[in-house]
Amino acid sequence: MNRRLSAALVATTALLASSGVASAHVKYVTPGSDPVAVVEFLLSALSDPFNLAVLALGGVSIAVGGLLYLRFRPARRDITLLRSLLTDYQDLLPWLLRLSVGLPLVGAGFAGYFFSPAVEPAAPTFVRLFGISTGFLVLFGFGTRFVATVGLLSYLVGFVLNPALMLAFEFVPGFIALALVGGGRPSADQVIARMADDERTIYSRIDPFYRTVAKPFAERVQPYEALVPIVLRVGLGISFIYLGVAQKLMNPGESLAVVAKYNLTAVVPVGPELWVIGAGLTETLVGVMFIVGLFTRAFSGVAFLLFTTTLFGLPDDPVLAHISLFGLVSALLVTGAGAFSVDEWLHAMDDDPNTPGIVRGGITSEDSR
């Protein structure tokens, strides 16, 4: 029994560390598979005591680890400094968002698919032009808010026509965030704005757009820029939950085919069904934590590691299909959870001198000062 529990603990650690390889978009790399009954698959997998032990140990370890951190708050100064250092990159957030959205759009255009490799139209000429032109305009930062709005509307229309675009849902928060923050710097928008804002330049006298449209619109949306962290974490949370539940737990046939194709059971010696369930639950957990805004930066780091493993772990996976998720998760490292999150509530509790020490991790107000 002790040996079995030890093996379960080792497998849990290895599975959580390596589940990113199986967490790729299975639609992109699956070699094809026979349909598998979901209920039968889950009942069969969860009837194995070893699988249950691994999953239970994983869940308990995460829960206990989170509670212990909230109780004792180790490395408090280090975490505060790290949070401050990451926040200092806020001025580069628009550039990071533009890279996250523009690069995969350009790649989709050259490859001939519409947002997701799972959506390849029969006549891809328009799709190629759309992806390349939109992507380059976003990367260049020219008319960023307008281009982002066009991109968002195009995605939504495409989603109505082909729900498979749910695989690329991360473009929704990406476009919305860009529409709110604009091009930032460095960008063509910033250069044009500086030129048009200086009344001594010839350009400022001939530009018909900046003062009448661009500047008023920027002033109108500026109060809503604070919503960007919420947009990112909720949008990414929905994406992760969809990938974990719909693409893994509710679609075990294709996920099992991916495990077999890459011989992932040789990486971590557990059954293929545990690979699928472990990857699905990991992605679902990350999505839920994003939506509620708990340990947002920590789980952004977890997601970052998952994508890094995926990018380098699957030789024929379309890397460009993951850049949007990869970049937007990186943006959450900068922004943190933002408003309406558990993290914000915890930070407020930390800063409140009247908060009891047990709630504040056993550190009193005087200690924290």
UniProtKB/TrEMBL annotation:
Membrane topology field: Multi-pass membrane protein
Keywords: Cell membrane, Membrane, Transmembrane, Transmembrane helix
Any one GO CC term of the record: plasma membrane
Compartments where found: Cell membrane
Entry's transmembrane regions: 50-72, 92-115, 127-148, 155-181, 226-245, 285-307, 319-340
InterPro entries, alphabetized: DoxX, DoxX-like_oxidoreductase
PANTHER family per UniProt: INNER MEMBRANE PROTEIN YPHA-RELATED, OXIDOREDUCTASE CATD-RELATED
Protein name: Uncharacterized membrane protein YphA, DoxX/SURF4 family
Organism whose genome encodes this protein: Halogranum gelatinilyticum
